[in-house]
Amino acid sequence: MSRCFADVLPEWPLEDVEAGLASATSGDVLRALETAQAGGRLEARDYMALLSPVASPYLEDMARLAREVTLRQFGRAVQLFTPLYLANYCTNQCVYCGFNTKNHIHRSMLTMDEVEAEGKAIAATGLRNILLLTGDAPKLTGPDYIAEAARRLRPYFPSIGIEVYSMTEDEYRMLVEAGVDSFTMFQETYNEGLYARLHPAGPKRDFRFRLNAPDRAAAAGMRCVNVGALLGLDQWRRDAFYTGLHADWIQRAYPGVEVAVSAPRMRPHEGSFNDIHPASERDLVQYIQALRLYLPSAGITLSTRERPFLRDRLIGLGITKISAGVSTAVGGHVHAENGEEHDTAQFEIADDRNVDQMMAAIAAQGYQPVFKAWEPLDETYACGQSA
């Protein structure tokens, strides 16, 4: 691989981004809004202005434009998905994560029969889009394990994504061949110095290897690549700015790849981590609206980390994909179906609505819930052909 995002990041030093956010003026914000209104493409400095503190009084104007852009690009469709946790074994010591190897939680991993049972439980709700997750323990849940899980699940789901540890391009290519079509990777924070402190031990400590994972996934043939930062680890405006740059880089470098962004905020979890830089709900709204105006054709995903009221209101302001019927525990869907206790969840969710309730909420906002927006070319997928 030649040039990648790790080569671009140094062009925007932290101190320069901080200074740019602090020095943005109302005139900069108004010029960015005028460009968006006229259908022009915003530059990185325009995006920075929309993220800046001085843009706060213009949230209603941003919301109006974000709604218009979203309708023009995506119509009234909102895709539904849910995560499927394969395992919670982990060798990392990420200080903000419930799966931290030092946390004394019950560890487990699904057998392939249990993977299929979990998939059947999810498919029974109507969902056709899943996201596979594991901790970072390649000796137990290596690429071969994830690939086999994807093959077992493919008859039930036309779209299978992964949100796992960083892999090589060849490993991503193997997963694509197994039926995985989308990739999610949270850089967590783009502040390299802070990143090292947040990841004191484990393979995830390699900042650059993780940073370049979306490039490798795109080069390996992933249909969709989704990036994001975990808001609350560093100053949210900085990480929001870098996330937008990262998504823009992927769009430009891999024009055939669908690009999406997630905007998760910190949630309570097993263990303790108190060095949080809060991002309020208002901050999150500003971020999502600025992102929609900067990257009109990028998908934006919102998880159950946010409370129902906020998720419902953001559907019309840039969000194109939303989770439903979520469990962040290993085998959580089957356990819930059987009324059983489940393993320790990765984090607490704020919106526990099931699929039917989430569909009703989307419809109440005047939008259409979509189960399936992608059809694989092979004949492996068999369930719900008429969905």
TrEMBL record:
Coiled coil (residue ranges): none
Keywords: 4Fe-4S, Iron, Iron-sulfur, Lyase, Metal-binding, S-adenosyl-L-methionine
Cofactor names: [4Fe-4S] cluster
Domain (Radical SAM core) ranges: 76-313
MF term (GO), any: iron ion binding
Pfam families according to UniProt: BATS, Radical_SAM
NCBIfam families per UniProt: thiH
Name this polypeptide is given: 2-iminoacetate synthase ThiH
EC number annotated for this UniProt entry: 4.1.99.19
